[in-house]
Design brief:
With 406 residues, the chain is mainly alpha-helical. The chain has one domain: Neurolysin, domain 3, CATH 1.10.1370. The chain contains 16 helices and 3 strands. Strands 1-3-2 form a 3-stranded mixed β-sheet, covered by helices on one side. Helix 6 crosses helix 7 and helix 10 runs antiparallel to helix 11 (283-295). The radius of gyration is 21 Å and the shape is globular. 42% of the residues are buried. The mean pLDDT is 96.
Amino acid sequence: MREARVPAALVERLSTLQSEGFTAWIRAKAEDRWDLFAPVLQQLLDASIERARAIDPVGHPYDTLLQEFDPGTTVASLQAMFTRLQAGLTGLLRAIAARPALPERPIALASARQLPLHREVTAALGYDYAAGRLDFAEHPFSITLGTGDVRITTHLHDDDLLGGLSGSVHEAGHALYEQGLPRDKVGWGVENAASMGLHESQSRFWENWIGRSRPFLGWLATRLTVHAPELGAETDALYAEANRVKPGLIRIYADEVTYNLHIVVRFELELALFEGRLAVADLPAAWRAKYEEYLGVSPATDREGVLQDVHWSGAAFGYFPSYTLGNLYAASLARAIETAVPDLWTAVGEGRFAPVLAWLRENVHRHGHTWDAPELVARAVGERDAVADLLDHLWARHGALYGATR
């Protein structure tokens, strides 16, 4: 057992540091002061490397931590994947940048009027409200409190209805996976998710492949005529707003095209920290430099830069690549679903999501952790080039929206 190799004193020290790290991060972000977080981050990094070496004295410490989130993933495999993906994304971004920009037209609606819509949409997707609930939180999350109790939260924006709804659909994707796992096999070792990457594939699939599709947004327009008729919501306007591409500073608000470049930045910085090529004190400057290089933007504050994510405060080094792995798994799963469900987009346009959920239940959810994620996905979709699947999807949706040519 991995954890049995870690000294009890180190486990206790790391737990204390995680608590201190979260408190320090909250204050540092609120006050935009990197110096309040850097000292405890250094201790978290040192303790995490020490823990990794206790588990595997000869392996790369970052490889060791990756196994906690996505078993079988290595630094080498991630570097190869990110190299291909980054090249493809950069080419798409250049092509889009050469086209006229789409106007920003966020939809404003009072938060109190949004929540009923969120509940209707997530219920339509298949989220079982008899075994969960949706509430407001400062940051969206999903949580499983026990068998038959899977809850989700969302953050509502008075000035951005689609942004808030996207968060609800994302968390519903996580919850649908949790509600579909084989909980009747508790104790067998297969009742949990196959990996965090596969978990993210479920949330990103519903959020992006379904939730940003034209058929879904056409159905949403009909629901908005009931919830907010004064908006005069139209499918084309919703589709353009949901799929507008604009490089930005904040990962969780990134569009589909730029999102994975945010992950590349974090992966490269984490790896440099673990290999001793980057000092904690130099992280803010390195962050700004990579954002300028990859996205053409640079944060004016650390709050919008290196302090924006909570992950490092809890020593979750190695988690960020799971988001991109999730996008890749989702891309291949989506291609398989389109083949297996011939009337997929007709059903989605009518607000019928049961065929999609049924396919996921049969091919993904019910298997739990019978296999690691790569094998589970391969059994579901066959041998596919996930990077190509994702780039094809992004070109077909965003390239076409902007009139860009490949």
